[in-house]
Amino acid sequence: MQLSHDQLRQLLDLIGESDIQELKLEGDDFRLEVRRNLPGAAPVAMVQAAPMAAAMQMAPAAGGLPATPSPPPPAAAASRTDLLEITAPMVATFYRSSAPGEAPFIEVGSRISVGQTICILEAMKLMNELEAEVGGEVVEILVENGTPVEFGQVLMRVKPG
Questions:
Q1: Under CATH, which architecture does the 84-160 domain have?
Q2: What's the average model confidence in pLDDT over 110-114?
Q3: 128, 125, 133: which is closest to 47 by C-alpha?
Q4: What percent of the chain has pLDDT over 70?
């Protein structure tokens, strides 16, 4: 199954106009999950795909320019083996806080726990809270607030514990 950007936008628009609260769609190399209006949860839309396959699949509609794979995310400095990397699960814009002027979710030196919101990734005007999958101390934050990130790009490093 292949979805173009336009098809994905149309699908999200249709879901937004319906009373559907949860949708899961899987293809050969992507997974789309959309949840909204669930008690106690913020609206979430998450797309995960293999980086090169996703770039190839998201070709524009007929008559547009052919899709070209995007370059891989910039290589991070040599990583220490004792640190865990938190990576971007999608192409998006990285935000350290919930709104301009608000305090960041975390700082270097902050202790985080599993399930804690550590940043927001905005994709197609949907704000996705990224939750920590590991606990420990934030040692590095590698992305500036408001900058675009690529799928798989290292956002921060955490010393587990």
A1: Beta Barrel (2.40)
A2: 94
A3: 128
A4: 70
Instruction: Kindly state the average pLDDT of the residues 113-118.
Output: 94
Percentage of the chain lying above the pLDDT 90 cut:
45
Domain ranges of the chain: 5-57, 84-160
pTM of structure: 0.52
Of the candidates 157, 154, 151, the one whose C-alpha atom is nearest the C-alpha of residue 134 is 157
Is the pLDDT reported for residue 160 higher than 50? yes
DSSP string, 14-38: HHHHS---EEEEE-SSEEEEEE-S-
CB environment 140-158: b (16+ within 10 A), e (fewer): bbbbeeeeebbbebbbbbb
Task: Report the C-alpha gap between 117 and 41 in whole angstroms.
Answer: 12
Structure tokens at 82: 């004792």
Whether 156 and 134 have beta carbons less than 8 Å apart is answered as no
- Residue 82 carries which DSSP code? T
User: Tokens 């190839």 appear where?
Assistant: 56
